[in-house]
From TrEMBL:
It comes from the Bacteria. Pathway: Amino-acid biosynthesis; L-tryptophan biosynthesis; L-tryptophan from chorismate: step 4/5. The keyword rRNA processing does not apply. Keywords: Amino-acid biosynthesis, Aromatic amino acid biosynthesis, Decarboxylase, Lyase, Tryptophan biosynthesis. Belongs to the TrpC family. It comes from Bradyrhizobium iriomotense. This is Indole-3-glycerol phosphate synthase.
Length: 266
């Protein structure tokens, strides 16, 4: 499947969604919700702790469908999926909250977080500070900022908003020029997405090429197309110890066993 401009299409409907959400709940009221939300759980610090104890850190994704694969999982109950991931040894959760392209929902994120003790990433296409506050109001511990979708000013403003609300930020890149821009931001976490946004093809070589260019004080997350422990070992040789995995786990009926298997040699 080839989609020449998926981010432009997504931005168009996101801007409409944001306008509608603002009409339904003005920013000042949303902000009051965010101030009352449960405290952030420390997404980055949880990953660092996992590394300190000598393990790989898995960010396990709750992903029902995707533009490249269509429907991935029919048996879909976010609290049970989240509990299974936690039992299998995941360090953190990622929950897709975009509806039109991923059949996601903010309710799924809230429910997954409430069912576990794990920190949660709101996995969505964030263009506006309203979405950052909305993420915190619904309990997110971390947000994703996609450099391919944002100019430097917007990335800086959205990151500042997330940090002001006590959340961590995962800055996502696909190539050298996005990496250069990401390194001007304050966030410690850089996600290298192995999925080409035009062709949707995943290639772990993307992580292997870009990881050595990232300063050692940043935490690197390899995202997309990761299927097995051998992939983790391969990526670890490029200095990566944190992995964001969705589809390959979501296709397994026993998620706890599949998560354990992904994280262990045998
Ligand atoms: O998953 C897609 O098809 C997709 C298409 C266009 C933009 C983003 C997309 N996915 C978002 C993600 O980054 C992944 O859900 C995440 O990295 C997990 O990937 P995977 O393990 O390959 O499901």
């Amino acid at each position: 499947m080839t989609d020449p401009d998926i981010l432009t299409k997504i931005e168009t409907y996101k801007r409409e969604e944001i306008a509608a959400a603002r009409r339904a709940l003005p920013r000042a009221e949303l902000d009051a919700h965010a101030r009352r939300a449960p405290s952030p759980r420390g997404f980055l610090s949880t990953i660092r702790k996992k590394h300190a104890s000598g393990g790989y850190a898995l960010i396990a994704e709750v992903k029902r469908a995707s533009p490249s694969r269509g429907l991935i999982r029919t048996d879909f109950h976010p609290p049970s999926l989240a509990r299974s991931y936690e039992a299998g040894g995941a360090a953190c959760l990622s929950v897709l909250t975009d509806k039109p392209s991923f059949m996601g929902d903010l309710d799924f994120m809230e429910a997954a977080r409430a069912a576990t003790n794990l920190p949660v990433l709101r996995k969505d296409f964030i263009f506006d500070t309203y979405q950052v506050i909305e993420a915190r109001a619904r309990g997110a511990d971390c947000i994703l900022l996609i450099m391919a979708a944002l100019d430097d000013g917007a990335a800086n403003d959205l990151e500042a908003a997330a940090l002001a609300y006590g959340m961590d930020v995962l800055i996502e890149i696909h190539d050298h020029s996005e990496l250069d821009r990401a390194l001007k931001l304050r966030s410690q976490m850089i996600g290298i997405n192995n999925r080409n946004l035009r062709t949707f093809v995943t290639n772990l070589k993307t992580s292997e090429t870009l990881a050595p260019l990232i300063p050692k004080d940043r935490l690197i997350v390899s995202e997309s197309g990761i299927c097995a422990f051998t992939d983790l070992e391969r990526l670890s040789r490029a200095g990566i110890a944190t992995f964001l995995v969705g589809e390959s786990l979501m296709r397994q009926s026993d998620l706890t066993t599949a998560t354990r298997a992904l994280l262990s040699k045998n």
